[in-house]
Amino acid sequence: MIIAEKKNNRFDLVVDNVRKTSKEVDCSGASVFIIHDDEIVTEEYWGRHSKDANARPIQEDTQFHVASVRKCYIGFAVAYAINEGYIDSIDDLVTKYLPLNMVKISLLQGTTIRHLLTHTHGLKRMNGEVYREFSSGEHWAYRGIGIDILTQIVKDTTGQTVAEIIKAKALNPLHLMETGWYGKVNEKLVEVIRKPNDPNWITSEGTDGDKMNMYVSTRDLAKWGYFHLKQGYVNGEQIIASELINLATSLQSTSLLDTDLPQNGCLWFVKDLPARRTEIGELVPKRSFQILGYTGVTLLVIPSRNLVAVRAFNSFGSPEGFDYLADVRKFGDTIMTCLVK
Known about the structure:
Number of strands: 14
Radius of gyration: 19 Å
Number of domains: 1
Strand order of the largest sheet: 1-3-2-14-13-12-11
Helix content: 25-40%
CATH architecture: 3-Layer(aba) Sandwich
Order of helices and strands: EHEEEHHEEHHEEHEEHEEEEH
Number of helices: 8
CATH topology: Beta-lactamase
CATH superfamily: DD-peptidase/beta-lactamase superfamily
Distance between the termini: 30 Å
Largest sheet: 7 strands, mixed
CATH class: Alpha Beta
Strand content: 15-25%
């Protein structure tokens, strides 16, 4: 993907904001990348891949562990399966597609693909057992079991893994070569700074796209966002059907009793009605979409402003007393402040 460069200082406040966050979390390096009006206007890197004084500097091809940001790639794969007819409807019951031995059928009654994509399925896994927290569609909870079910459904219906779909339909056509799931470390991957024995840290040698071992360079992640901003049309070519992108990034959440709960597209967080628990800043306009990872890596797309912004860190989790939701909202709000100056 080719995007013109026209670096300027319009978003210096955003760089300052990301630098401030990088000092507050436990990381050794960070970056920020902004595309505005079809030009790369901000690109900054600082620090090193680890706390080792001789570690590789953070640079253009550095790949950050994106944690839950990977879910927007999984959402793309599900949208692909729906758009291509492998899944008949987003409102199909999960039991239509899920292998009988994965979760007890009795637990899945009334649960649809839409519920899985919008974190409203109500399932939770603890100590290897799956149980129901609430009836599907009645509440919102961020649980990994929904992602596991979705990736299995993609594989069973399409005959391809999430990683294979992403590579064939997006990464290869867009020439995004700094994106992938890695079973082994290499020099371009950052070391993830984390507490010893952190229960949230899960590594894997699998590369199917169903595990939390995805690394992406800041520039690749920004271009992935730009691909969505442009509805799949880049460099004079419709790479993927615009209907697929629209499905993935538009509001798919059903109405909930608690209006302060977040709203989602296909795993993306989508700005719609004001909600206290949203991760998107108050100043960010409606129909914007964003995804945030446990490492603090964030991708924000603001269609009404023709803008994509990425920030990346190699931290894992937040220090005690750090309000990560307030911090990521500030990232988006600072961008909007720069736009109206």
